[in-house]
Amino acid sequence: MSFGPHLLLATLEGLVTAAVLALTALGLSLVFGVMRVVNVAHGEFFMLGAVLAWAFSTLVTGHPALGFLLALVLSPLVVGLVALVAERLVLRRLNYNPESTIVATIGLLYIIQQSVLTFYGPEARPVVAPFSYRIMLPWFGYSGYKLFVIAASIALIAATWLVLTRTRIGLVMRATQYDRETAQSFGIPVDRVYAGVFALGAMLAAVAAVLIVPIQQAHYLMGLDPLLLSFIVVIIGGLGSLRGTVVAALLIGVSDGVISVFFSPTLAKMLATFLVAMVLVFRPQGLFGTTAR
Amino acid sequence: MSDLLVIDRVDVFYGDLQVLHQVSLTLKQGEVLCLLGRNGAGKSTLLKTIMGLVPARAGSIQLGGTELTTMPAHEVPRAGVALVPQGRRLFAEMTVAENIEIGLMARGKGRATREAVLDLFPLLRERLKQSSGTLSGGEQQMLDMARALCVEPDVLLLDEPTEGLMPSMIAKIRDTVVELRRRGVSTILVEQRVDAVLSVADRAAFLENGRNRETVDIDTLRADPAAIRRYVGVG
């Protein structure tokens, strides 16, 4: 394959990574932006989403799309419910203290991970893609499902953006993010906003996992990579900034795809880590981040 | 006239440190009560306690017979209290219109309230789409007051609203307080500027080290400003 088509293939693979990463990181970014909670268990919500996707997809016989659709609807809902329970039982009792919640979410990480290991097992299990159509380009054929993943992620990110910027719920979330105390003094029930945001963050991770699991397979340790990459993305983009998250996910995802193909995946990870270090030194709030009261 | 707001022997702590000791005050409908005292006397803390943002460990705060200290903080504005905090704590990344919308949402007010408030501050009408963080200091203070007035409060708490403003803006804020009094809104005003206090307040209450000292009619204070010298150190 000549250089041009090779670059196109690498870019497409990078865009798939970027799309899923943007969704996952957006959840992490929202939770930190609004609640100031660093959710170390975020990757486990991703993993739980994938494992539940496998479980729901096996409930339905017939066309794979039916099982996938069921997983796409139910898996994020169940993960959101788990997050809601965790928020009520753990984070709220800690009064969302930043240091305490880091330790608490590390505990949550192990509880979810080991529960999945106990009840699901150590095997990696595949979920069948809802369709297997290949788009034939002049130089190579490319998975139609992967293009669907990109399109679905764009649609979900756009929907999140619309909710944040065009609805009353979004207004309330942004007010809580900018100044919790002032928000309260204008009748905003901050505790309820926090619960909703924590569930929404987990659901975004779960949706991302359902989308990627036909490509990757569900495994009880699959939460670590999305967690680390999400942290890289939100540090570069700026915690709490939707625009920054999308830009940083594109930067990391596409560069990862291109550099991995032309050089090595290790070099791609090295460059991403170097970029994080540079951002932390020269612009600690991230490329698009702001400081909150 | 009966008391609208009754603060009765309130104790407040920051951790182990007691910052308000048995503070008691009353506020009648349509009255402007000025809180005076040196920095650290507990004026802002008292306003935050009324709003439920700082919990009272003892005592009671009643608005029209409804106890506020047992309410979650987000329900206090629904009961009819609004705060204009010190230092213009606008949602700076939001537009003027969005800040006003937040105020309207507190008690479910709509277009009529919005228009009435914008009539009070016509300059804001021209800035609705502008990010509030880019407004001048005076415009930001107007927006802070407009946002609070969108609550249609029975009691308005103003924490040093004229701080750092030029004279024309101070006059505008004073006129607004007078207009609100005419409409029956009760106001607690924390203010360092003695001239502003004397021109708008009905009574003045002095706090010192978190304790009530004197509460005097403004005419009495005009005639004998000794209390101002004693508790504020100016005049």
Care to describe what's here?
The complex is a heterodimer of chains A (293) and B (235). Chain A is built from eleven helices and two strands. By secondary structure, chain A is mainly α. Chain A has a two-stranded antiparallel sheet with strand order 1-2. In chain A, β1 (134-136) and β2 (141-143) form a beta hairpin. The mean pLDDT of chain A is 93. Chain B has 235 residues and is of the alpha/beta class. Helix content of chain B is 37%, strand content 28%. Chain B has helices spanning 43-51, 76-79, 96-106, 111-120, 122-125, 137-149, 167-182, 194-200, 218-223, 226-231; strands at residues 3-14, 17-28, 32-36, 56-63, 66-67, 81-84, 155-159, 186-190, 203-208, 211-217. In chain B, strands 6-7-8-3-9-10 form a six-stranded mixed β-sheet, with helices on both faces. Chain B has a four-stranded antiparallel β-sheet with strand order 2-1-4-5, covered by helices on one side. In chain B, β4 and β5 (66-67) form a beta hairpin. The A-B interface holds A 168, 171-172, 174-175, 178-179, 181-190, 290, 293 and B 51-53, 72-78, 82-83, 85, 89, 91-94, 98, 101-103, 105-107, 147, 151.
Number of strands of chain A: 2
Distance between the termini of chain B: 31 Å
| Beta-strand content estimate of chain B | 25-35%
Q: Please bin the fraction of helical residues of chain A.
A: over 70%
Order of helices and strands of chain A: HHHHEEHHHHHHH
Structural class of chain B: alpha/beta
Give the N-terminus to C-terminus distance of chain A in angstroms. Answer: 54 Å
The shape of chain B, in one word, is: globular
The first-level CATH class of chain A is given as: Mainly Alpha
Spatial shape of chain A: globular
